[in-house]
Write a structure and sequence with these properties.
Largest sheet of chain C: 5 strands, mixed
Distance between the termini of chain C: 72 Å
Number of strands of chain C: 7
Chains: A alpha+beta, B mainly alpha, C alpha/beta
Shape of chain C: elongated
Structural class of chain C: alpha/beta
Largest sheet of chain B: none
CATH topology of chain C: Glutaredoxin
Number of domains of chain B: 2
Helix content of chain C: 25-40%
Order of helices and strands of chain C: HEEEHEHEHEEH
CATH architecture of chain C: 3-Layer(aba) Sandwich
CATH class of chain C: Alpha Beta
CATH superfamily of chain C: Glutaredoxin
Number of domains of chain C: 1
CATH topology of the largest domain in chain B: Helicase, Ruva Protein, domain 3
Number of strands of chain B: 1
Strand content of chain B: under 5%
Oligomer: heterotrimer
Structural class of chain B: mainly alpha
Amino acid sequence: MIAEAGLAALWLAAAMALLQLALGALALRPGQGGLAPAIVPVAMLQALLVSIAFACLIATFARSDMSVLLVAENSHSAKPMIYKIAGTWGNHEGSMLLWVTILGLAGATIAMFERKLRADTKLATLAAQGAIALGFYAFLLFSSNPFTRIAGVIEGQGLNPLLQDPGLAFHPPTLYAGYVGMSAAFSFAVGALVTRNVTPQFARAMRPWILGAWIFLTVGITAGSYWSYYTLGWGGWWFWDPVENASLMPWLAATALIHSVTVLATRDGLRAWTIMLAVLAFSMSMVGTFLVRSGVLTSVHSFAVDPSRGIFILALLAIYIGGALALFALRIGTVTEGNRFDIVSREAALVVNNLLLTVILVVVMAGTLYPLALEGASGAKISVGAPYFNATAGPLALLLMMIMAAGPLLRWRADKPKLVLSRMALALLAGAAALLALVLAGGQIGAMPLLGLVAAATVAVASLAPLWKRKLTRTPLFTFGMVMAHVGCAVSIAGMASESAFTQENMVAMAQGETKSVGPFAVTFAGLREFPGPNYAALEGVLLVKQGAGKPIIMAPQLHQFSDPPMLTNQAAIKTFWNGQLYLTIGEKAVGNRWLVRMWWKPFVTLIWLGGAMIALGGLLSLLGRVKRDLTGKRAADAPAREAPAKEAAT
Amino acid sequence: MRRLFALLAALLLAIPLHTGQALAQDYAEESLPNPRQEEQALALMDAIRCVVCQGQPISGSNADLAGDMRRIIREKIAAGESPAQVRAWLVSKYGDWVSFQPQVSPATSPLWLVPLATLIGGFWLLSRRIRIGRKR
Amino acid sequence: MKRKWLLWLPFALGLVLLGLFYVGLKKPEDHIIVSRMVGKPLPLFTAPAALPGQPGAATADYRMGKPRLLNIFASWCVPCVAEVPVLLRLKAMGVEVDGIAVHDTTEALQSFLARNGNPYTRIGRDDQSRIQLMLGSSGVPETFVIDGRGMIVHQHIGVVSEADIPKLLGLLGQQK
């Protein structure tokens, strides 16, 4: 009965989405404004119904109801409860239902809390949100029904063991909240185009929604990176795999967007470009969903795919992306270009930031999709992977770091190069000191990691400069947010550069009692033991790790042999020190009487994810700061002109 | 596989171990003694695509054939071949597909030209929006 | 409206992208990696005998004037069982079939051949896939057609079925 209730709720939610679209379209007609208030409860009802449907699906998984096809195919009654629940979105249908649930919730949140937006623009925004939801409800109901029944199944086929990890519980929901949260930016942009309302006030209304989605996206990518780092068992934290690239593309567009929207909000510039980016960010989210779900590209991250569904998503992509871009082409001509700016100014730095982020986005897209295009055109098969992305996106990212160091120290409108240099003196000094230290320390270090570390030192100091000589208690929260996010970038880049430059790796076969070294550690192989896990058999290597004369610690990497479905997974043993991580795994086989052990010492690798967390936290501070200002300084926000430049400029 | 590793584990635990007994290295899974060569080999392994589990580089794949490729790569590097030569050898067997580093050729040029064109086009658009030389 | 085309540029690029996705979806799913060694001489190798009493294989054996099939297989490979009857039929027609056993043991191989029959003239062992890698082969089973002068003429990927017999006979015949 639960499955039927869920299906009914899903149909009703789809009906609400249709109603939301129709109401919006009708109420926008002259003289029909009386209908407008009705759209708010409709959006809320839609969110409620789709949440009920999702809750029903979770219930069928939690109860291991094998009469539901999806549960039978993807779950197993012997699984721990957390993986039963998380398994709800560890498959195609469930993850798409999660997708529309978040979409519905985003729509309802806009309906309830958005107060700054002009009424007609809000109406159009909600109508656009309804239109998107409608398409994806159709996709679920007609080609990916999660509630289909099946008879005669007693036991399920189980969940891919790689997904039986706490990471599954929160990685997809956060990433999806980011992906789908970008629909708000998209709908705002469509709403602004339809009602010809591309103004600073519109930008200020849109900004918190973009920030919110961007925070989720940042957390999702960071968590996903750490998840694959510890589950795949090879010590890598980013593989430039199509699925990873699919999550990076919307993030790049969204990062450009949160910067350009600031120009629009503060200086009334970059009107058309901001709208373009808002469309692009959600388009990239949908493209990402399409790439992951259709199986067009080969990926490490295994997903059950079905090309016939690909056609359906592609049709939705064509309608939404094509429609929005056509609307853009038709309407944006009526939007005047907005203010111009000086070559040495905060605006110019933000525009160059946008340009570089866009070019990085193009690099990621080209690398991900060009093999497909080439094979389609000539049949030639090529592979594009880490060497290409590192060599092209790397230098662009370094350039971006330089702009990031200077940007916040520039004044709006126009600034004097000499003054900028003097404000950056300390940061440049820090960079030079880092360079000197690294060169003096010797050792072979590649050009890119070296420049990365120098840039990180420069950016870290430069990013703190806006707080210099300021009364910290009177500094707005969003300035702290920007500082935190930029320092986070420096921290993350430092981690990446350090990992790439200083990682020590040792792959060895060890007999019992034998000792090998990696980095500053001596690792002794004490032996192997076997024991049963909850739904797997485990083989554990016991390793004694000693650093210098210190007390030895025990690290125990494992292999897990799952039977439903049969699969072997590698559980790395990871020990975090203040200056890095020791990462140990055992191999599947022996060489003679010696067992294979892989050891990595990764200095400061944790900074990569710490930086990611700081970037997200910076976004959160920024969001809180904006919301707080809107609540307290209502009058200031209502004044349409611009925020006082002095408050945002440095010094 | 499960039975296999249970067997191997039993074997390893049961046999009184003769430590210090010289055994041949298995370069499919073990590092080269020369750290510089090992570094070169690892970098190459990161850039060679596994022909069995196709999304992964051979450095991170558990497939037997990936291990065999790692062994050959380490052996060739240890024998003094350059990473470029070893890559060329693999490409001569499996085609460009096997290398994650695309060769620069007319067919692959869009990989670099498209981003470059975006950069130039972007600066061109930008130049129209910037005021130069009118300081206030 | 002098730069109207510029405004439609994103739309056009979007269409190109969607077109590309459509092509990608329609493209038949193939994960087959074709060997680049076809049309080239067989690389130099010597595969020691995998079984006592049956010779191993080496490059020189393929320059004796008679075309031969070189079958890459393994006793642990499930689909390999299916092609043994076909290989036996080819053998009955006078075709020389040699085997390269990948990652195999003598005992497993003996019981595999005892169960399914032995179509092979020679069986070489390839414990570390060295010969497989030399040939540009990416899995088992695969079958290479080698002409009498040691040239690789054709690579058949996957199980050889009854339907493939005429094609293989044709390839072998041309090379006589």
